[in-house]
């Protein structure tokens, strides 16, 4: 077997990226994603593409935010690992898989090849997530009307709320941030992401109880691929009342009022309360995502 050759692509040879089979449906999943040709890399053996990766970031980012398209041919896990190790960007790897992929032998085998390549390159699994996509055919979720929602221009209000929300959280990324730099880092990372999104700052909302207490926050957003539930969070002292559903319903209605024809969302598989709220609000699971951290 000949050695693997790793190549970075550009506009002149970007078509090489499309020569590898796509058993997990990544191309359709990235129909609205814009990948830069010079952030794509392939591994070739005897001139044939056996692994490929497309790193991704926003239109104004100078470096990729993550690697969200990674494919490896059967039996080529070592080549996939070499592709990952050779990249100049060591960022989080997102593997998006069809819902129920474990129940289909062919899909499971294709996924396991990618997992093996990631592990060989030193990546560790951080979390498995559920991806949702609401469309008008799902019907708008009922709004309970228990909370009052107001725009809030002061970032300090959201920062304080996020610190309190993440003091008791099931979210793996937030827990990682807390471990690395405490509650301030976790709150700051969330705010940085909200500001990074191209949607208006004026969309951010605080939810108040009938007594005037802050119950939680919700962030309707657009990421570069379209409208999404940016964040739903209930303060610890107001949990147990089902307010996360109220926030989710309000966030969905808000985005539709802004013209959204679909709404994307995600939650960790282990966050059973939030998954139940998405189900109650009529959000179907369309894909599953595994997030891997680089070495």
Automatic annotation (TrEMBL):
Xref: InterPro entries: Acyl_CoA_acyltransferase, GNAT_dom
N-acetyltransferase domain residues: 163-295
Keywords: Transferase
Secretion signal, residue range per the UniProt entry: none
Top-level division of the source organism's lineage: Bacteria
SUPFAM superfamilies given in the database record: Acyl-CoA N-acyltransferases (Nat)
CDD domains: NAT_SF (cd04301)
Lineage of producing organism: Bacteria, Bacillati, Actinomycetota, Actinomycetes, Kitasatosporales
Transferase as UniProt keyword: yes
GO molecular function: acyltransferase activity, transferring groups other than amino-acyl groups
Pfam families with a match to the protein in the record: Acetyltransf_1
Protein name stated in the entry: GCN5 family acetyltransferase
